[in-house]
Each structure stands twice: as structure tokens, then as C-alpha cells.
Amino acid sequence: MTNPTNAKKAELAALIESLVPLGEDADELRFWGNIFDDLEPGEQDKILTELRDELEKLKNA
Amino acid sequence: MKEFPQPISAPDHPPEPSRESAHTRREILEKAGEGRRKLFENISASRIKEIARSRTADIAGNLIPGIDIPKLFAEAWRGKTSSGEELSRRQRFAYTAVAGGISMAYALELSGLTGGALTARAAAGAIAKIELGPETLKEIAERSKKRFPKQAALLEKTANFLLDKREAFYSVFGAGRAATEERFLPEKRYD
Questions:
Q1: Residues of chain A whose pLDDT is less than 70?
Q2: What is the dihedral of CA B143, B149, B155, B160, to 10 degrees?
């Protein structure tokens, strides 16, 4: 069975990889990647939702 | 043979985004950056409240306003330094991270004191240590690992992020110290 935390981390990595070429700050997003394990589950979900929404909007812009 | 550089508008290059599209993208990036700044501010505040809750109620009351968190974060939200210099989107996150890091370090440093020892002098000592820079935040994180592992881990990684952002560190620190002294340490000046 897939570990939910690993699945979240994989999604975060994919989001970062997609957002940087669209103008996002690699340094800041790498920081979010580094602290991800130290966040509460709700905080992890929040950053994932924000990055997911941002990517969607940037793709449609 | 063609000479370099090749024109950027060569057919195999993707078309440049229109001015309107570039503007929309900037707005999306700005808005998203604002959301992440708010999130990091909330995360920092939540970790500090957990430290405060582990102590007596009267200490909690002093600890949280003692660092004047809103003032520390003010430069990042205003988008300007205290001397009026405009901050870029990237700088604004660095300023937010500095404010969060300093707030957590201050709370951790004071968390080791008993109620009677938490005085203006102790607060001044914590402020003076933190003033030295991101390396001090790492030392405070290291010392706090056993008592507050969650906060220490976040502080250590925040300090690592700030190692090459000293300008932001000292700008935010200066604004936060001035506000803290004004409220809590009217007779303690360091410069």
C-alpha cells in the first residue's frame, strides 16, 4: 500500500518541477520541500492545494 | 555558415507570451506568493503558541507579544524595508522566513527560563544572541531539539534557508528589535 506521506512528497516534487519553469522561485519551493516532513498533515495539504491551484492557473494563463 | 547568436525568434523557439498573458502570470505568481507567506506566518505562530502553552499562563501572555510578531512580519507584508526599499516577490518570502525564524528562536530561547527568571534582562539577552545571525538560530535549534523537536527541526531548516539571506535577516531583525524595545525594554538600548 502506498504511504500517504510519500505520495504527498512525490506530488510536491512534481509540482515544484512544473512550477519553476513557469517563473516560481526554485529556492523558496526547495525550502518548502525541505520542511514538508516537519509540517502537520493539515499544513502539508494546504501547501499542496496552493501549489496545485497555482499550477492550474499558470497553465491556463 | 550562420553566425552566433541565433535570433531568439527562430522558428524552433516557443512564442513569447503576449504582454497580457505575462501580466496575468505575474499576478498569479504574486497571489500565490502571498498565500505561501501567510501560510508560513501561520505555521510559525502555531509553533510559538505550542511553546507558550507548555509554560505557565502568565509566561505565555508575555512570551508571544514579547517578540512583537506582527511587527517582525510587517516589512514582508508592506513590501518595503524600513528604509523604504521595494522588495521583490522573492525577497518578500525571505523576509517572512526571517520573521518566522527569529520569532521561533526567541520563543525557544526564553522557553528554558522559569517564571521568575523571565525578565527584561533575559529577553534582552535572547535578543542580543539572535542578532548575531542565522548561525545563532541553528545553535538555538540544536539546543532545543530534546524539549521541542518539532519546533527545532523547522527552525534549523529555516536557518539553513537564511544563511545566504543576511541582508533580509538584519533588516527584519532591526525592525523587530526596535518594536520590542519600544514596548518592553524602554531603558535597554544596544546601539
A1: 1-2
A2: 80
Across B108-125, b (16+ Cβ under 10 Å) vs e yields bbbbebeeeebeeeebbe
Query: Is B21 part of the contact surface with chain A (CB cutoff 8 Å)?
Result: yes
Chain B from 62 to 91: CB within 8 A of any A CB: 89-90
Please state at what angle helix B89-111 crosses helix B120-130, rounded to 10 degrees: 140
Question: Touching check for A35 and chain B: CB below 8 Å?
Answer: yes
Q: In one letter, which amino acid is B47?
A: R
- Interface contact flag, B93 A43, Cβ < 8 Å: no
By Cβ distance, the residue of B25, B154, B160 closest to A23 is: B25
Out of A31, A46, A57, name the one closest to residue B39 (CB): A46
Complex prediction ipTM: 0.94
Whole-prediction pTM value? 0.80
